[in-house]
Prior knowledge:
This protein is α/β, with parallel strands linked by helices. The chain has helices spanning about 10-20, 30-35, 40-50, 65-75, 90-100, 110-120, 130-135, 140-155, 170-175, 185-195, 195-215; strands spanning about 1-5, 25, 55, 80-85, 105-110, 125-130, 160, 180-185. The structure holds SN-glycerol-3-phosphate.
Amino acid sequence: MKFFIDTANIDEIREASDMGVIDGVTTNPSLISKEDGKFEDIIRQICEIVDGPISAEVIATDAAGMIDEARKLSQIHKNVVVKIPCIREGLKATKALSSDGIGVNMTLVFSPSQALLAAKAGAMFASPFVGRLDDISHYGMELVQQIVSIYNNYSFETEVLVASIRNPLHLVDAAQMGADVATMPFKVIDQIVRHPLTDIGLKKFLADWEKVKARS
Ligand code: G3P
């Protein structure tokens, strides 16, 4: 299972990358808007830190415009994967770009049929947004289960990238369901490493070691 970090914040990306568990990065216009600097420069900087798929999203909503932006974004670095929204024009763009060897992360996926279309169009990743479904009283993880089983039925190569993860249980559920990738904000990466019994255990080991040191 691959772990991506869902942020455009360079300090968070550096810190998570130093932990040795980050395989890629996802951004979106909202995350980019929280950081200073030009979009292309931020993406370039991220590519220098993490050697893996780095998602950068297009803004155009027509296929020609999306393709044009995607080609420019893919010039920034070989690891750039272009994020395209799951709309009709997005499918056209995804088909054209993936046929040309440009990786697409089909984003804003909220139904199994949308995920099926993303795979048919040749997307490298399909991104179901689980937290946003939970927000409107739909079980987001149910969608992930459906997509994993559909992709397995037909051996689609498109990877299931679980997005809009809000808590550690989303990650654990995604792993149990066999999702290929989970993209998490830094806060969740920090939460999943913590356990109170680890902290209590470590404190006791260190206190006991003081007794050992006192012997000499
Ligand atoms: O990767 C998509 C993610 O950034 C959306 O998260 O919390 O805004 O729904 P959220």
